[in-house]
Amino acid sequence: MTISLKINGEDRTLDVDPDTPLLWVLRDELRLTGTKFGCGIAQCGACTVLLNGQTRRSCVTPIGAIDGYDVETIEAVEGPEAEAVQAAWVDLNVPQCGYCQSGQVVAATALLREMPKPTDEDIDNAMAGNLCRCATYTRIRKAIRQASDTLEA
Amino acid sequence: MTQLTPTRRGFLTGAAGLVIATQLPLAARAQSAAATGSFTPNAFVRVGTDNTITVIIKHLEMGQGAYTGLASCVAEEMDADWSQVRAENAPADASLYTNAAFGLQGVGGSTGLASSYIQMRQAGAAARGMLVSAAARNWDVPESEITVEKGVVRHDASGNSASFGDLAEAATESAVPVEPPLKNEEEFTLIGQKVERLDSMAKSTGASDFTIDIYRDGMLTVAMRHSPKFGGKVASFNPEPALAIPGVERVEQISSGIAIYGQNTFAALKGREAVEIEWDDRGAETRSSEEMVRVWTEAARKPAAVAEESGDLDTALSEAATTLEAEYVFPFLAHAPLEPLDGVIELRDGEAEIWMGSQLQTVDHGVAAQTLGMDQGNIKLNTTLAGGSFGRRAQPGSEFMAQLAEVGKAAGNGAYKLLWTREDDIHGGYYRPLTVHRLRGGLDADGNIIAWDDTIANQSIIAGSPFEEALMQNGLDATAYEGSTRMPYAWPNHRVSWARMESPVSVLWWRSVGHTHTAYATETFLDELLEAGGKDPVAGRLELIKDAPRDRGVLERVADMAAWSGAGTGDKRYGVALHESFNSYVAMVAEVSNQGGMPHVSKIWCAVDCGYAVNPDVVIAQMEGGIGFGIGTAMFNEITLGEGGRVQQSNYDTYRMLRLNEMPEIEVSILNTGNEPTGVGEPGVPPVAPAIANAWRSLTGSTPRRQPFTVALS
Ligand code: FES
Ligand code: FES
Question: Any idea where the Aldehyde oxidase/xanthine dehydrogenase a/b hammerhead domain is (chain B) (predicted)?
Answer without folding.
Answer: 205-283
